[in-house]
Design goal:
about 45% helix, single chain, three-stranded antiparallel beta sheet, 10 helices, 5 strands, 3 domains, GIY-YIG endonuclease
Length: about 190
């Protein structure tokens, strides 16, 4: 029976002309007759094949949206057992996330003393606003944890707003490479 099913399936799977299909069917009938099989077996296989509807499990394919081409590709799968799902990496949650949550970046920044223009150069993986608040708190409460606050307090200098005294100059991944770019704490006064 396995050989008969194989020959029957082979005849139906390959796309051949009606003349060759008839010739193949006659060959299978001849093989059945030569081996003393009932030729009605072949007809029963045809009936069972028609009754049995093969239902495949649905599968999903995920496509990143890049424009109208993505929709055209998704339409190609419309009459198949593969369903297309279109997605994007540009979600609102990712857009609203802070720098520290979005990436593994480490930023070199500098704080400029508004009175004497000396520069304090450091690195952080935190958002700038949080880092500035830490420096400002140390200045406000006379806490000398921050070298920038210590400079301001010892020289009786004032602190300015964040957007005028804080700026970035280098971005890289966190790690040892960042340490080599921030060895300087204070630079000389500009000319």
């Amino acid at each position: 029976m396995a050989a008969i099913r194989y020959l029957h399936n082979r005849m139906n799977i390959y796309q051949i002309s009606p003349g060759k299909l008839l010739k193949e069917s006659n060959t299978i009938h001849q093989i059945l007759t030569n081996n003393i099989y009932d030729t009605s077996i072949l007809r029963n296989l045809c009936v069972k094949k028609k009754q049995k509807h093969i239902k495949y499990k649905e599968q999903w394919a995920k496509f990143a949206y890049v424009g109208k081409e993505t929709s055209a590709i998704a339409k190609m799968f419309k009459n198949t057992n593969v369903k297309a799902a279109i997605s994007t990496d540009n979600t609102t949650g990712k857009l609203l996330a802070t720098r520290n949550q979005r990436s593994n970046d480490c930023v070199s920044y500098q704080l400029i003393c508004p009175t004497c223009n000396m520069k304090y150069i450091r690195q952080t993986g935190e958002p700038f606003k949080i880092r500035f608040i830490e420096h400002f708190r140390d200045f406000k409460y006379d806490n000398k944890k921050s070298r920038f606050a210590q400079h301001l307090l010892e020289n009786r200098h004032s602190i300015g707003p964040m957007d005028s005294i804080m700026e970035t100059f280098h971005t890289t991944n966190k790690g040892r490479m960042m340490d080599y770019s921030t060895d300087i704490t204070f630079s000389v006064k500009p000319n």
